[in-house]
Design goal:
single chain; mainly alpha; Helix Hairpins; 4 helices; rod-shaped; binds zinc ion
């Protein structure tokens, strides 16, 4: 005995939902890979920022060392001039310059020391940051591998479901098949709905006794409210 229309529609609905779930799962794969790639990017950025900061600190320290040498030279010059000053006014002016130069020196030395200290601290972090990049890259490679296997498995399952779907569709009565094809082309797996008792489970609209009888006879019966092809449960 060939399967009844209800059995066929039930099967088709199950297969279409299954295929839809598989497609959705396949569609989600690139996004998951992107998230994983984002992790690598974040670690690489953290490393790069630290490296750039170290470079800037070194440049700033070098610049300040140059200025420090200049103030040292100036101080030596003023010191020498102290021996040859002609009057108190010149002496006072030189003392001011000397005090000013010493203060500049002290500040520059402090700044250079702070920059060196920060450079050292940041440099100490580099191995850990490099390690984090390597770790994220390795995780990405691993993830990519697993995902490729998953994609292959899902695609295989999808192909199987679609082949089975085509096979089952050939069993539909010709008149019903045309309506079914038109509906699924528009609404996909959402083109069908089971009847629970006397109610369309998709939109909770009741069906008439006449519709129920038609379902029993295996006719094409659309829900009066939502238009889905109805079928009886097991
Ligand atoms: Zn309905």
């Amino acid at each position: 005995m060939p399967p009844t229309t209800a059995v066929i529609l039930r099967d088709l609905h199950r297969l279409r939902r299954h295929a839809k779930n598989l497609k959705d799962e396949i569609d989600r794969l690139p996004k998951m890979l992107q998230a994983q790639q984002g992790k690598v990017k974040r670690q690489e950025d953290a490393l790069k920022q630290t490296q750039e900061k170290i470079t800037k600190l070194k440049l700033a320290a070098k610049d300040k060392e140059g200025r420090l040498k200049q103030t040292h030279d100036n101080l030596a010059k003023y010191q020498k001039q102290l021996d040859t000053v002609a009057n108190k006014k010149e002496m006072d002016a030189l003392q001011v310059e000397l005090a000013h130069g010493k203060e500049s020196n002290r500040k520059l030395e402090e700044e250079i020391f702070a920059a060196m200290e920060e450079t050292e601290q940041l440099t100490a972090k580099l191995p850990e940051l490099n390690q984090a990049v390597a770790q994220a890259k390795s995780e990405l490679a691993n993830f990519d591998q697993i995902q490729q296997e998953k994609r292959a498995a899902l695609t295989g399952e999808l192909n199987k479901a679609e082949a089975e779907l085509k096979e089952v569709e050939t069993g539909l009565p010709e008149d019903l098949k045309a309506m079914y094809m038109r509906l699924v082309s528009q609404r996909g797996e959402d083109a069908m709905s089971e009847v629970n008792g006397r109610t369309c489970v998709a939109c909770y609209t009741e069906i008439t006794a006449q519709m129920y009888n038609n379902l029993l006879m295996g006719s094409y019966v659309p829900c009066r409210n939502c238009g889905r092809v109805l079928y009886l449960p097991e």
